[in-house]
Amino acid sequence: MGRKWPFVSLVFVLALSMLLAACGSDSEEDNDSNTGSGIELGQKDLTLPYVAWAREMPVSYLYAAILEDVGYNVELKQVEAGPMWSSVADGSADFFTGASLPVIHGEYEKKYGDDVVKVNMNDEQTLNALTVPSYMEDVNSIEDLQNNKELGDSVDWKITGIDPGAGLMSNTEIAMDEYHLKDDWELSSSSESAMLAELKTKYDKEEPIVVTLWTPHWAFGVWDLKMLDDPKGVYGDGDQIYTVARKGFKEDAPAAYKILEQYTEDPDMIAEELMAPIFNEDQDPEDVVREFIDNHPDLIEEWTKGVK
């Protein structure tokens, strides 16, 4: 009988050791989760170019704040659409959030597509079109602009556009050719903010105006607007919005890339909680983004899962 005790003791010690090891492993995993370990940050200094459009600017600020919260240093650079694409393609910038494809940024994708990576589709359906206030009851299609002397004279035969490097402007030039508008109409380039200021002035007076516009956009929540029918399909059936990164970004900044992959977007939420306060109420973008982050902890946790 006495000889059996050493064997039993040995079995007990081995079992206890295995149990403690398992508990220790679980504790380490819990501790890792609580202390924020996970995918490595890698390169900590990031450059994020953006165009000051209704969605791209606030979403870029949102990305920057989330990435900085997990340990990155993010430099935001306001640029035009061409430099936004080219800087990521040549590696002088790391990623941007607003590639509108396949239509609006189609030419940029042809030029730079081999040098960038489409990380994530943020919005499945956007629309681009010539747009007018709904009180312009007799104007419902681009065809209604053809030889329309009364309308043309009332707006000085001008379509009010945005910045000249925007893909939407290129598409509008094509539309003017397709609908034979160029003999009479002129596409005026300015900036999104200038276009919206003119739209507001005309809208408040219920005067006619034709602008280039897209969805999602906060303007549709503030003013009663309608997009003109495009029977020739120049603007396509709509675009998708992608986050695009330089090649090698996934290897250089794996945690940031993971966040970009896990990001999801509700267009209505972005329009109401980010676009409108910044553009319509003139609030500071950083303050608006911080309030958004504070109001949606579950969403932020989903986007940073495995990182934070």
TrEMBL record:
Species this chain originates from = Lederbergia ruris
**Signal sequence interval, chain numbering:** 1-21
Q: Which SUPFAM superfamilies match?
A: Periplasmic binding protein-like II
Its localization reads: Cell membrane
Query: What range(s) does the ABC-type glycine betaine transport system substrate-binding domain occupy?
Result: 44-294
* Protein's name according to its UniProt entry: Glycine/betaine ABC transporter substrate-binding protein
Record flagged with keyword Membrane: yes
Instruction: Keywords in alphabetical order, please.
Output: Cell membrane, Membrane, Signal, Transport
Taxonomic path? Bacteria, Bacillati, Bacillota, Bacilli, Bacillales
Q: Which InterPro entries match?
A: ABC_Gly_betaine_transp_sub-bd
Q: Quick check: keyword Cell membrane in the entry?
A: yes
